[in-house]
Specification:
18 helices; alpha/beta; single chain; 15 strands
């Protein structure tokens, strides 16, 4: 019932943490069936073992990183935990740090409200970066972008580098923060560990389903009265959760967020909030987002908005993201505008062309969402490809630039496309094609050699490059305009 649990209130609600050994925590995490709650779902006990063994081989101490970055507007569960129960997260992180002999605790965040809550919580516990402490704790602020939650990008920022995924991939358990073996996991994961440590595996397992006990935090958005964060025992029917939030299964539910997949209404009515139930239908909870879609909306039009947004959320440093995702967005728009079977085949080829080729998983996740969209709504796809469209409106109900979510202040979800867009003056354009060479992320050439603008706003990291393209246009046909101006 409290807006935020300070240290005193937290202890009165949850009690003190028990003292456990490394082997006890590893056994506990395994018996809890605890997996990473950030999307990948990797078993947590295996991470603990890998970091401990790596540290012993190298004869070094370790580091612990809490990933509190939610760059996806469809996900707000971690932000809710950080703002309302920050000490539960720190409890789990400090427990892991103690058993692994960590010298550094890093908590990464993207929003002012989350940073303020964690900063206050660290101060209430006397944790900081002062010399002489066995465990030094600090906050790393990341830009509000979709890719900010990528592990290697956070570790790079923690080490004083750019907040971007590096080209060379090294497991965090081998060399992470300050080159030390590093335990890296999501906000909710550490909070669940803290709950399990207090309850013990037996009591923890009294809630939820066998093999996946406990609870799950979910963000419900899309065609709902308001974006809502809920905590539910595992095994509860998905349709019941949606009903509680004032929604139905609609014409489908996007499960796992914008790197997830659509499931049809029939399946959505049957599945439960459990890994085994969802995986039987090739779906996963991912970062814990459920987005039902109202039957009166164009599902492909709503998906196009997300694909265009994902194309603007890249780190801008590798081809599959910088070139492939904007191309995918442009081709999907062509398909929905009646481009025919040829445009659809080109779209499929472009999507498969980014698979497995990115520095991080952003291209693969975006490809998965796009292919799921055109596979889940085949009737609508046929209406767009073969006819004049499905006739239903696109209203942008899948959140992109919405509020921070329950309990937070409004504002952009941050670090996204700017408020500017590229515009072509067709009375001047001569089809030189220079703009496509200077700005391939946004501009491609049509069959006649003229620029085909993808329709997305200019990503902030491409603002300077867009101005160069405007200045160098031989026909002076290109300009930048305010995208919000009518």
């Amino acid at each position: 019932m409290a807006e935020r649990l300070d240290r005193v209130t937290h202890l009165s609600v949850h009690g003190s943490m028990p003292t456990l050994t490394e082997s006890e925590v590893i056994d506990l995490a395994e018996l809890m069936g605890l997996r990473g709650r950030g999307g990948a779902g990797f078993p947590f006990y295996r991470k603990l073992k890998a970091v401990g063994e790596s540290a012993r081989r190298k004869g070094t101490r370790t580091a612990v990183v809490v990933n509190g970055c939610e760059g996806e507007p469809a996900c707000r569960k971690d932000a809710t935990i950080l703002r309302r129960a920050p000490h539960l997260v720190i409890d789990g992180a400090v427990l892991a740090a103690e058993i692994l002999g960590a010298q550094t605790l890093v908590i990464s965040v993207t929003r002012d409200t989350n940073e303020a809550s964690i900063r206050d919580a660290l101060a209430e516990r006397g944790l900081g970066e002062k010399r002489g402490r066995n465990l030094k704790a600090r906050i790393v602020r990341m830009p509000e972008r979709f890719v900010s939650g990528e592990s290697s990008g956070i570790i790079s920022a923690a080490n004083g580098g750019l907040p971007l995924p590096p080209g060379r991939k090294v497991s965090a358990s081998v060399a992470g923060v300050d080159g030390l073996p590093t335990l890296f996991s999501n906000t909710e994961t550490f909070a669940q560990l803290a709950v399990g440590a207090r309850l013990g595996a037996l009591r923890f397992g009294s809630t939820g389903v066998a093999g996946e006990p406990g609870t799950a935090m979910l963000t419900i958005s899309g065609s709902v009265p308001r974006q809502t964060v809920v905590e539910t025992p595992t095994g509860v029917p998905m349709s019941y959760i949606l009903q509680m939030c004032g929604a139905g299964v609609g014409q489908g539910v996007l499960v796992g967020g914008y790197h997830g997949a659509w499931i049809d209404p029939q399946i959505a009515s049957m599945v439960t909030i459990a890994r085994e139930s969802l995986e039987a239908h090739k779906a996963t909870l991912g970062a814990g987002a459920l987005l039902p879609l109202d039957p009166g909306l164009c599902p492909l039009g709503e998906s196009l908005k997300v694909v265009e947004w994902l194309a603007g959320e890249t780190a801008g440093q590798c081809g599959p993201c910088r070139l492939g995702l904007p191309s995918m967005a442009a081709l999907l728009r062509d398909v929905l505008n009646g481009g025919g079977q040829g445009a659809l085949e080109a779209l499929r080829q472009a999507a498969l062309g980014v698979k497995g080729r990115g520095v991080c998983s952003h291209p693969d996740g975006s490809m998965r969402f796009l292919l799921s969209s055109i596979s889940a709504f085949t009737d609508d796809l046929a209406a767009h490809v073969l006819g004049g469209g499905c006739g239903r409106p696109t209203k942008g109900v899948l959140p992109l630039l919405g509020s921070e979510g329950p309990g937070g202040k409004g504002g952009k979800s941050g670090g996204k496309a700017s408020n500017e867009k590229l515009v072509v003056d067709w009375t001047l354009c001569k089809g030189h094609g220079l703009c496509a060479g200077l700005l391939p992320e946004i501009v491609r050439l049509d069959r006649n050699g003229y620029p085909d603008i993808a329709g997305t706003r200019i990503p902030e990291h491409l603002n300077a490059q867009a101005q160069v393209a405007v200045r160098r246009c031989p026909a002076l046909a290109l300009r930048v305009e305010d995208a919000t101006r009518r």
